[in-house]
Structures are given as structure tokens and as C-alpha cells.
Amino acid sequence: MLRNINPSQTDSWRKLSGHYRQIEPVRMKDLFAADPDRFKKFSFRFKDLLVDCSKNRITEETLGLLIDLAGETGVKEAIESMFTGENINTTENRAVLHTALRSREKTPLIVDGEDVRPFCSACFT
């Protein structure tokens, strides 16, 4: 069951807001000057895609606070619920099938007792 949590009402959000007020005046050039490995720490590659977060006003503390927020609001569990076909669309009381539509996996995705992959795989033929 997907938890319905307003992130702005959590302890993690309050800590993140306080942290934002602390780093708001910090300039990017100062962050890079203070940490020559900043690009390496705050960027990663996925196949041919480069994700560079180093040019955002974040620190290692920021990342820790964001991870805490994700934990407190159940992001990991929500992702698992989405990928396993649980009914997480509370407005329509049904599964969200975004992942099935984009997936090229052969493993079944059972929703309401039926494998929805054959319907979604037709999109790729």
C-alpha cells in the first residue's frame, strides 16, 4: 500500500529547509574552489548519459538530507509498488503502467491477475 505523505510536513523537510537557508548565499565558484573533486562527487554516467549535479548548490550534507527525505516519505517502497503493478493511482484506483509501457523486459508484470506485458510490447513492434 502506497503511503500518502505530504513531504513538506516531515522532519526531513524541515531539516532540508534549514539547510537551504544556510547554503542559499553560497556561490558556486566558492563551492568549486573549496572542493577540487566536486565534479567527480556530484556527477555520474549512465550509459551515454552524463548527469552533472555539481553545478547546483548542493553539498554532501544536502544529499544526505535528500536521502533522509526519500526514506521518510517511502520513495523506495513507492518505486517497488509501481514496478510490481500495485494499485498506486489512488484517483483511479488502479496500477500505473508507465514502467510496463517503456520496458523491454520479458518477465511478466501481473496486474489484476493478468500479464500486461503482451499489451505493452505491441508498442515496440
Description:
The chain has 125 residues and is mainly α. It has two domains: 8-73, no CATH class; 75-125, no CATH class. The chain has helices spanning 11-23, 28-34, 38-41, 60-73, 75-83, 98-102, 117-121, and strands at residues 43-46, 49-52, 110-111, 114-115. The chain has a two-stranded antiparallel sheet. Strands 3-4 form a two-stranded antiparallel sheet. The model has no long low-confidence stretch (mean pLDDT 86).
SSE map:
Blueprint: H1 11-23, H2 28-34, H3 38-41, E1 43-46, E2 49-52, H4 60-73, H5 75-83, H6 98-102, E3 110-111, E4 114-115, H7 117-121
Mean pLDDT: 86
CA gyration radius, whole angstroms: 20 Å
Biggest sheet character: 2 strands, antiparallel
Provide the helix percentage: 40-55%
Number of DSSP strands?
4
Q: What share of residues are in beta strands? A: 5-15%
| Quaternary structure state of the chains depicted | single chain
Distance between the termini: 34 Å
In total, the number of domains comes to 2
Shape: flat
Number of helices: 7
Helices and strands, in order, run as HHHEEHHHEEH
Structural class: mainly alpha
Order of adjacent strands in the largest pleated sheet? 1-2
Low-confidence runs:
none
Give the gist of this structure.
The protein is 46% helix and 10% strand. It has 125 residues and is mostly helical. The chain folds into two domains: 8-73, no CATH class; 75-125, no CATH class.
